[in-house]
Request: fold
Amino acid sequence: MSSRGPSKLETPLTRMFGVRAPILVGPMTAVSEVSLVVAAAEAGIFAGLPPHNFRDVAAFRAALREIRARTRGPFAVNLIVNRANVLLSRQLEAALEAETPIFVTSLGDPSDVIRRAHAAGAKVVCDVSTLEHGLRVKDAGADALNAVVAGAGGHAGHVSAFALVPSLVDRVGLPVVCAGGVVDGRGLAAALALGAAGVQMGTRFIASAECAAPQGWKDAIVSATTDDVVLTERLSGVMGSYLKTPDLERQMRAMPAPVRALLRHPRTKSTTRKLMLLIASRRMDAVRRGERALYSAGQSSDMVHDVAPVAEIVDRILREYRDVVGDLASGA
Ligand SMILES: Cc1cc2nc3c(=O)[nH]c(=O)nc-3n(C[C@H](O)[C@H](O)[C@H](O)COP(=O)(O)O)c2cc1C
Reply:
């Protein structure tokens, strides 16, 4: 076995986006900034940039200009397409002006974004966590689906990758990206075996050299086991995956019973969630400054053992993928 792996791996996804490996660096609230997006593009893959990580649309525009100046590679803009995102049309405008080649949509109805992105020649990948949503975004014209599966970092899905990926592949008929639980070549091989055309990874790339997340977040991922990952809605009102820390445990105890009741009641649930998301985004500013240890990460944290440069992570995954597939074929 040579220590240099294959330099590329082709799937329908790599052909759609002109990248060398079917690996997307997922957009991450409080984490993804210009440095990670540029590093991914230079490593021959691409990363998503969430406009909501910037203090305003002007700062987001400046970030897009910087990306354009630092790399010729592709990148994606992540748009939250539900009604709570009052900045959506300005974010979309800024992204289209910067000739963004790929959009990743989260939550809600992406129809308008798809129409405008297609008119500008861009592609759209839509986050879905159910078959029904997958079928709806196909009708709206999505180019590919991000299957947000159970165990993922961020706001995880509730269906296992083993069920959701093949279900979307068989019944929707668009390229499917397995978003969640993958950090290495074993995971990539498993996702492709399920019929996925690629993977979207978040947790592994938080623990990358070019990621702007505080060192404490990276260290927490490197030292975590699966037992350290908890699912809770007590931070943002939406079920999310976090690493156990004393700050998280304090925060979880802090949610008063009346708020829990408001979150359960069908008539107050949605407004309570919106308010909690707003409070959570303020809290994340303190996390970014390294002042509070509230770290979202997926169950795959257990398999992350170091902080490494993005290009090295991609090379390693391709090498491991080739070895796993070879071992499976030879029955080793
Ligand atoms: C800290 C964190 C923040 C995230 N924020 C977003 C986001 O703003 N928009 C989005 O579409 N996905 C978001 N995600 C999901 C990731 O893009 C990606 O799909 C997920 O991390 C994949 O699962 P993994 O962490 O097991 O690799 C986030 C994930 C993490 C860990």
